[in-house]
């Protein structure tokens, strides 16, 4: 059962003039609840408020929002807590007036049952849907996720858990719902997100752990050949944590990375949070 709060009160409806509904004018965060606490809460809030600054959305009071998130998360031992923040109700037209009052929507739900045969190790395919470049929005988790929607609609096979997305130049950027890392030796590499893609909070956490694992982190342009030559490939997001990739598929070609060394160490560290 999903429970929903809007601006602090239990509700399930928003104004049809809301700019998030009409234009995707807003941001969202999806938090994992572990032992009644939202995991990586500070990272989520920092990304959200940075997004508000870049989009010129007047954010809610930080102390109030933090209190709401902690209070609602405590209702479940584990689950999913989603925060949607829109610019609010506005007049007709794209231009915001600057007087809108943001609307915060919180929803709480249990984790869904995993249908994939091996939920702890993913099979991943390369999508044909490409990400458009936009340095103004790069890295943000905005409400406009149509590229991910189109990419995720490309396959129905339940054995494939995720899809990789490229930019217009053929660089690997991210998954439809996750970030990707590859490892060769002590080099831990992830795509540079200065043109497109979402800078995930779990991606940030993984990068912060590299030194402790004696790895050298790099944010670079990644191509399919880089993945094909990797010793290890894993993907991550706030809900699933760190997931090793057992098989990558591109037009009938498949790659099987031989190792799960760094991913296993990260999973053990994450379990302690």
Describe this structure in words.
α4 links the parallel β7 and β8 (162-167). The chain contains 7 helices and 15 strands. The chain is an alpha+beta fold and 273 residues long. It has 2 domains: 3-109, 2-Layer Sandwich (D-amino Acid Aminotransferase, Chain A, domain 1), CATH 3.30.470; 122-270, D-amino Acid Aminotransferase, Chain A, domain 2 (Alpha-Beta Barrel), CATH 3.20.10.10. It is globular and about 50 Å long. The longest helix has 15 residues, at 41-55.
Indicate the topology.
Blueprint: E1 3-6, E2 9-10, H1 19-23, E3 26-34, E4 37-38, H2 41-55, H3 62-73, E5 78-86, E6 103-109, E7 122-131, H4 146-152, E8 162-167, E9 172-175, E10 179-184, E11 187-191, H5 201-209, E12 216-220, H6 224-228, E13 232-237, E14 241-250, E15 253-255, H7 261-270
List keywords for this structure.
single chain; 273 residues; alpha+beta; D-amino Acid Aminotransferase, Chain A, domain 1; D-amino Acid Aminotransferase, Chain A, domain 2; nine-stranded mixed beta sheet; six-stranded antiparallel beta sheet
Number of helices: 7
| N-to-C series of helices and strands | EEHEEHHEEEHEEEEHEHEEEH
Q: Could you say which overall geometry the principal axes of the C-alpha atoms support?
A: globular
How would a textbook summarize the main sheet? Answer: 9 strands, mixed
The amount of beta strand, in percent, is 25-35%
Helicity level, as a percent range?
A: 10-25%
What distance separates the N and C termini?
26 Å
Unreliable stretches (pLDDT < 50, length at least 5) are: none
CATH domain fold name of the largest domain: D-amino Acid Aminotransferase, Chain A, domain 2
């Amino acid at each position: 059962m999903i429970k929903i709060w809007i601006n602090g009160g239990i509700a399930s409806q928003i104004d049809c003039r809301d700019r998030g509904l009409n234009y995707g004018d807003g941001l969202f965060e999806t938090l994992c609840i572990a032992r009644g606490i939202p995991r990586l809460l500070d990272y989520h809030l920092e990304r959200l408020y940075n997004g508000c600054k870049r989009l010129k959305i007047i954010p809610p009071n930080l102390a109030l929002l933090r209190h709401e998130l902690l209070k609602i998360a405590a209702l479940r031992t584990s689950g999913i807590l989603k925060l949607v923040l829109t610019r609010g109700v506005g007049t007709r037209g794209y231009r915001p007036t600057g007087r809108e009052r943001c609307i915060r929507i919180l929803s709480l739900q249990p984790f869904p049952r995993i249908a994939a045969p091996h939920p702890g190790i993913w099979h991943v395919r390369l999508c044909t849907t490409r990400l458009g470049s936009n340095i103004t929005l790069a890295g943000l988790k905005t409400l406009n996720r149509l590229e991910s929607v189109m990419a995720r609609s490309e396959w129905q096979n339940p054995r494939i858990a995720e899809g990789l997305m490229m930019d217009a130049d053929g660089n690997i950027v991210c998954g439809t719902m996750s970030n990707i890392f590859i490892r060769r030796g002590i080099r831990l590499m992830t795509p540079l997100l200065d043109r497109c893609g979402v800078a995930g909070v779990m991606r940030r956490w993984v990068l912060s752990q590299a030194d402790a694992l004696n790895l050298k982190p790099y944010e670079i342009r990644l191509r399919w050949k880089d993945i094909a030559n990797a010793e290890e490939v894993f993907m991550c997001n706030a809900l699933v944590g760190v997931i090793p990739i057992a098989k990558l598929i591109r037009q009938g070609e498949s790659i099987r990375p031989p190792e799960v060394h760094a991913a296993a160490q990260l999973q053990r560290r994450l379990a302690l949070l």
